[in-house]
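Trying the structure run again after the queue cleared.
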Amino acid sequence: MSQRVGPYRIVRRIGAGGMGEVFEAVHEELGRHVALKLLKPEAMPGVEAQRRFRREMQTGAALIHPNLVRLYDGGTLDGTLYMAMELVAGETLADRLARERPPVAWSVRVARQVAEGLACLHAQVICHRDVKPQNILLDLNGVPKIADFGLVRTVEGTAITADGCLAGTLAYISPELLCGAPVTPAADLWALGCVLYTMLCGQGPWQASGPTELYQAIASQPIRPVEELASNIPPAVAQVVARLLDRRPEARLSSAAEVASALSGLSSSELRALK
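Done. Tokens:
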């Protein structure tokens, strides 16, 4: 591709997803390095792809929070839909988990900050729908930032896409969404519970050999308590995980803000014991 898109000079390719490619780029007049997301040329004819890309732009423009990737600019340049976003110099949570099981105290802090980011998102009456380690970026100080708002949906929308497919990543989709229920913040809280469980235990809540087995496990298989897999989990943290992974949406913690508050409520002695 061209080494320039409007005022942005491409530095290197960072990665790609279903709709777009992401590059490190620099706005040469401002001298600001950004993550430049471009809609793939082959996706451009797709009305759904363009609509989702534009929705991601509109969502990002309304969100300013230290635990959400910030959108600086977006629109069409040289006939290509683009978004210029905060460049997070670090790694994804998925990268960290692939390398090691992080300390419990670190995992609790990350989960609390992700919950704070989700609380900001939910305050705008929208749900992320794809909370997972790959979409949580860690800056050089280990601060998490939720990324990829391509699947956001207003509360009470549907988890089914226009082509009849289930949106999101199966391992983090809540049981009620698998049954076709409306999207609510409780679905994001379930996904956060799966992320926290994985950080604490070094594995997800279910061990399945394929999508069908995983689907069935999410729907009905008992979840092994985190304290059985990790001996140093404080009861308060284990309780948060259990509440987040309750199959009844109404039985989960009531909001992302409540999750953040519960994890912030650990005593200093408990936090010291986790190190």
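Residues 10 and 192 are 34 Å apart (CA to CA). Worth checking whether this holds up in the mutant runs.
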